[in-house]
Specification:
alpha+beta, Alpha-Beta Plaits
Length: 164
């Protein structure tokens, strides 16, 4: 999986890359999809299957996350916080960079594409690149949210992919 999720984050849209022996010309995507479906855990189903050349790699460019909130935490303070984040030219987070606990300051503003509050859910779109991205825990920190303020698990709802 080219874009692994953080622990506790659900996903509606993952990309699974498999290497299968044989030629692309003899590949039957419908047959493969049916066989793959029978091997996946309950609740996990392939939406589409396609064959690509062996050296193809996939890079995520944008990922969208939904944070469902408890009603009592949807307030003017949260709306103001979102507005401030989007207006900021720089958003510095303290990121742990290794197992020794070393910390580095990272400006994640360039990775934050949008933050929208609608009803009781915040949708965050994040840019990703080989240079990095913003982490789910960092989004929570910037929004001043924690698990007790969430009404449901965090969900990654979509990912836009680029291939070489």
């Amino acid at each position: 999986m080219p874009l692994p999720r953080s622990v506790g984050v659900e996903s509606d849209d993952d990309l699974l890359c498999l290497q299968v022996e044989g030629s692309i010309s003899s590949f039957d995507s419908d047959t493969f999809k049916a066989k793959l479906s029978g091997q996946l855990p309950a609740g996990c189903e392939p939406l589409s299957v396609r064959a690509v050349k062996t050296k193809t790699s996939f890079q995520p460019s944008v990922a969208a996350y939904v944070f469902d909130l408890r009603q009592e935490y949807v307030n003017e303070r949260l709306k103001a916080r979102i507005k401030r984040l989007l207006a900021s030219e720089s958003l510095i987070v303290h990121r742990r960079i290794d197992a020794k606990g070393n910390i580095r300051d990272v400006d994640v503003r360039g990775f934050l594409k949008s933050v929208e509050l609608a009803d009781k859910a915040i949708t965050v779109k994040c840019k990703t690149s080989p240079a990095g991205s913003i982490r789910v825990a960092e989004i929570l920190e910037l929004l001043e949210l924690d698990a007790k303020k969430l009404a449901a698990p965090i969900r990654r709802t979509s990912v836009q992919w680029q291939s070489n």
